[in-house]
Amino acid sequence: MTAMTMVQAINSALDCTMARDPNVLVMGEDVGFFGGVFRCTEGLYEKYGAHRALDTPIAEGGIVGAAIGMGVNGLRPVVEMQFADYIYPAIDQIISELARLRHRSGGEFWAPVVVRAPCGGGIRGGQTHSQSPEGIFTHVCGLKTVMPSNPYDAKGLLISAIEDDDPVIFFEPKRIYNGPFYGHDSSTGAVGWSSHPAGEVPEEHYRIPLGKANVLRAGSAVTVLTYGTMVHVAQAAVEACGIDAELIDLRSLLPLDLDTVAASVSKTGRCVVIHEATRTSGYGAELIAEVQEECFWHLRAPIERVTGWDTPYPHAFEWEYFPSQRRIIEALERTLAFD
Amino acid sequence: MTGQQGPAGVIPPRRKSKLHVPAASSRPGQVPDFSQLHIPPAGDASKPGLDVAALDTAALAHGLIRVLDDDGAATGEWQPDLSPQQLRDGLRHMLHVRAYDDRMFRMQRQGKLSFYMKCSGEEAVAVAQAMALESGDMLFPTYRQQGLLFVRGRSVVDMMCHCISNAGDNLKGRQMPVFYSWKEGNFFSISGNLATQYSQAVGWAMASAYKGEDHIAAAWVGDGSTAEADVHNAMLFAATYKAPVILNVVNNQWAISTPQSFASTGTTFAARGLGFNLPSVRVDGNDFLAVYAVTRWAAERARQGFGPTFVEHLSYRAAGHSTSDNPDGYRASGEAEAWPLGDPVQRLKQHLLRLGEWSEQQHSELEQELAAAVARDWKEAITHGTLEEGPHWPVESMFEDVFKEMPEHLVRQRRKVGEQL
User: Fold this and answer.
1) Which of A13, A300, B250, B276 shows its CA 20 to 30 Å from the CA of A189?
2) B262, B224 in Cβ contact below 8 A?
3) pTM for the whole thing?
């Protein structure tokens, strides 16, 4: 085991898969010679060459289109979108092509493409460098959508994604690339991954299956469903208020580990859903619908959700926008106030 | 503000910006006008070496490569090396496509198909190109290159089964008619989202080069869909990575009701390739010999590491866009007859007659033979089911192939559908 940041763990996942399979390549803007703006592909150009750490033009639609063709021809391209906010020029290739190719061709053609994208806010990135668009992709049939919350999971999930024969949208919360984050600007940069248990990462190849949630904290009072950066904010909120919450890191949004979710809510009878993304038609709405369908007769309180507001991500009001520990604690207390 | 005064103290009229809306070659009630098309004589175009630079193809991108002259004689540097038997094969494939299109169009009008798209007048493009490529080359077509399937030997019955979504449809009833996919024939699944296949073809070709294989890719778009960002992406990626790909534009003059002038910007489509530093040529798409020769040349360039070629095929969409539109509503009826480059079938027939390798009697016998074959194929296809009455694939099969292995939420949904049945 080695202490790794999330960036190093992602780099290690790419290195492990590229070493094992000559058909794996990384491609995207600045991923080759430079090693990526967040350094996730650092060293791969030197180790595997310019054709396997492939710099591309600034054309996200072209990058994904080309990756689909490569995937059809036997390669396993791992595409980096420089920011999740830049994914939209590629959305037709992702939604109309990548997601549906296997189905529309009766199983004749498919493209095992992974699209990695740094997402989320808390970095003073304004509205074009802070978005969490996961709900757009979970709504598309034929895509798997994943968002890890720590280095250990990031590596194991990314290896599974690359080795999966279906397309995977792999969101990396960039606020926690270099350390966990507890939801307030005063903690910015205060803690690294080296003192966190999930910052210990094996150097060798391992997989974490897609579609399996992680119960981070067992509890009996309320179930908290979250993923990505909000896992750490929620954990800090639970510790701060002393509520005996069961905290579930979903890790994989689609497929969703509904069995783990339903078992927990059936036990606690209460549920709070937390995500950074905007509220209306967000992934939380889907979670709440599934929970009430599966657990209605066990529920003792309305399901709460804590999300970003339905506005573009504001530069100046980042901490008023970001779902804070305070907002999470208030939601937990509201749900516990019901008898 | 006053205008600048001239020497004599006269104020010249100010020039103003103007919104230019392109005109069509004809609209209903008008006389078709193709007079703006410059058609150079056959045999005029020079044939460059395989290593030609994009800049040195400028005359070919703005001109027109023609081999067959108006009398059906082959002439000039682009004459391909085709035997009389190969020419007869080409004619047979084109007539087969035409017979198939006619039959399927009629079946749609009788309500046996939901939809159909003919390629009348453009048969030479797909047929000659497929004959010029190797079987291992990957094809990324639009819905108007059905000729590729005929040359590669796809079962006509299977094509029909797809079009009526019956139990024999290899696409399991998931696609509307003519959106074929045929992996065995290296024919990529056709998308209804136009031009997406263009950058995919470039990626496929990049992978071929990545693996050191000598298979190339070929992709097609229409004149209208050259406007899509995917086309620009594909041209840029092809040029950047010198991908072994042939990027074809079939300029058939019409994008449903919108004339090619809404995408051509007043110049040729081939000229657009020059800006991407792609060797670019424009070919008479109704000239079987010229299309074949250009494709052989472009394929050889790709296979020998000289990279991509951008090819505009100048042709004419003689039928409607699909069975859902009536062309008499947006262009003069009879415009096809005014098209100055004629009909590809008639022109190849004329060439074979001139060579003494074909006769009118052989031609009409072949047309009858193919019409009968297509009629037989239809009868066989409907033994596997019809669109309205089935049998179709089992309803539950729609949950398959969304993912390689069915996740739990789809298993549950499939169960619900099963309970309803």
Assistant:
1) A13
2) yes
3) 0.97
